[in-house]
Specification:
Order of helices and strands: EEEEHEHEEH
Mean pLDDT: 93
Structural class: alpha+beta
Oligomer: single chain
Strand content: 35-45%
Number of strands: 7
Strand order of the largest sheet: 1-2-3-4-5-7-6
Helix content: 10-25%
Largest sheet: 7 strands, mixed
Low-confidence stretches: none
Number of helices: 3
Distance between the termini: 23 Å
Length: about 110
């Protein structure tokens, strides 16, 4: 069974890390930094081609932030475009951002299935 395991770090570069696990196997990791009233997705890496695992990691991180009173999110992770595209982040002022309720809303099949 797939589980998105949170690990609170509270360091300068990472507030929480989420690991996608299937039993003992790690399928991916997402790092979140809460700062300046923003939930910042700073890193995403997958050990699988299944982009839905990455989407689940993003949703777990954004839900974590929302439960702590954060409303806006930015995506600063490098080399994670395919995963980022699973949620409707928009480019504004040179960065990818969105309000968490909109990012967590359903996609109604508008996901690139590649």
């Amino acid at each position: 069974m797939l589980f998105f395991e949170p690990s609170v770090r509270n360091t300068e570069n990472c507030t929480a890390r989420f690991t996608a696990k299937d039993g003992d196997a790690s399928l991916g990791v997402c790092e979140l930094l809460l700062h300046d009233r923003l939930a910042d997705i700073t890193a995403v890496s997958l050990q699988t081609e299944d982009l839905s695992i990455g989407e689940g990691l993003l949703r777990a991180a954004l839900n974590f932030a929302s439960n702590r009173g954060y409303y806006m999110a930015v995506f600063s992770a490098k080399d994670a475009e395919k995963v980022r595209a699973r949620l409707p982040f928009e480019e504004k002022n040179g960065r990818l951002q969105g309000d968490i309720p909109s990012l967590l809303a359903g996609t109604c099949g508008n996901i690139d299935k590649s």
